[in-house]
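Protein Record: Sequence and Backbone Structure Tokens
======================================================
Scope: a single protein chain, as residues and as a discrete description of its fold.
Tokens: labelled as protein backbone structure tokens, with as many entries as the chain has residues.
Position: the record begins directly beneath this header, with no further notes in between.
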Amino acid sequence: MSHKLHVHSEQRALRWALFGSVGFVVLALTFALLTRSDAILFDGIYSLIAFCVALLTLKVARLAERPDDDRFHFGYTSMEPALNLFKSLFILVACTWACIEAVKRLMVGGNPAAYGLATVYGAAATLGCLLVAWLMARAGRQTRSDLVAVESRTWLVDGLLSAAVFIGFLLAWWLEGSPWARYAPVVDPLLLIAIVIVALPVPLGILRDSMREILWMPPPGSLADDIEQQLLATLAKVAYDRVEVRITKRGRNTYLLVHIVVSEGFKIQSIADLDAIRHHSEAVLKAWHPEIVMDMLFVRDAALAD
């Protein structure tokens, strides 16, 4: 995918998230008023947070495409993990508030709601959120954008929350016409607590990944090892004693700082020979992983690589 097409696809996917958020905010808040359901109200607040963050995400995605300048010497991609960090914190605050409110409702006997109408909302919200999550996940795979990937996970959580709401409302609707009708009012606050428990792992995971990037830690999993193996394969014809590779991921970019401790047999005719080695390594790595940005230093003193 060309860079121009990549940027266009990313912007289009983020606009999907923005428009989807607007629609679900209106849907959820309308049904929350009609049904008096705290679970639907929380779903609406969650969608409102998603809308506000989507506006910021679209702006950050545009900034991340800018080259480095006097204000940001390493480019604007560092804004991406910062935005994802704030997004996860917003969701965690909303989850904490919702859980406290649900416990308060339980202590006073529950919250009676119009469960028949609420099931309509649950079905519509579940299908809509899962559709947007699928579209965003597909766009995320095509663009390899962290911003789009996080949006996809956020929408998936919203879809799972809506599915839980739908199932719970069906149960409460059935309870209202059964001998256990007195238990129907507790379904809504119990649903809200269950939703929070289901939702928490995703913002916590986004928080963890964002902190790794902000703190310049290496990428998780086997990516660092895979990158090092690919790099060493490109240096097969270089006479070296040791190669020290430091890897960190900042937003869409994976940054490599490579120190090559050359051996005594290492010979070059000019600086252009060093440039050729770096160009070759960079071309191979970018063909395999386009988001790689690399600096390569050649040293003889091994202490300079530590």
About this structure: The chain has two domains: 3-214, 223-305. The radius of gyration is 25 Å.
